């Protein structure tokens, strides 16, 4: 599985609309509204890097309201949630 964190600048009045359209995409697992230099962070989880490129250059590019993106490709995942879930018994 390939994972990318996509940092997005979005027109202020369209943040909720763009967030919903992103999270409705099969390739997007989560969307976060954040403070700071970016407005949204979308987590893209797909089979390979080509699908990341297709999703961002294709599907994201078609959405009205996105001003700019910056994509971070994840090499490894370290998550307390995954470890706790894996070792939980009967919960």
Automatic annotation (TrEMBL):
Domain Transcription regulator AsnC/Lrp ligand binding, residue spans: 6-77
Gene3D superfamilies: 3.30.70.920
Record Pfam families: AsnC_trans_reg
Protein known as: Transcription regulator AsnC/Lrp ligand binding domain-containing protein
């Amino acid at each position: 599985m390939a994972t990318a964190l996509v940092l997005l600048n979005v027109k202020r009045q369209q943040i909720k609309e763009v967030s919903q359209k992103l999270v409705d995409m099969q390739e997007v697992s989560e969307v976060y509204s954040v403070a700071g230099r970016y407005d949204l962070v979308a987590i893209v989880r797909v089979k390979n890097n080509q699908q990341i490129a297709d999703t961002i250059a294709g599907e994201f590019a078609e959405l009205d309201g996105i001003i700019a993106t910056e994509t971070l490709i994840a090499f490894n995942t370290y998550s307390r949630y995954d470890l706790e879930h894996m070792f939980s018994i009967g919960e």
